[in-house]
Amino acid sequence: MTIKEQITQELEKLPEPVLQEILDFVQFLQTKHQQNKMLEITIMSESSLQKDWLKPEEEAAWKNL
What we know:
This protein is mainly α. Helix content is 83%, strand content 0%.
């Protein structure tokens, strides 16, 4: 039996209020996962964007801001 099947089987036994808590937790985990993924993307893109940031033309363009 897969984990998904085991979870489904256990969910069938629970009352509605507990299911709401579980739904809240699942949504929390999804949000946490998305935030971690966005952080990874940000960190990975930083090194490639850094090449442009370090150019003298970029420095001059942002100098007066």
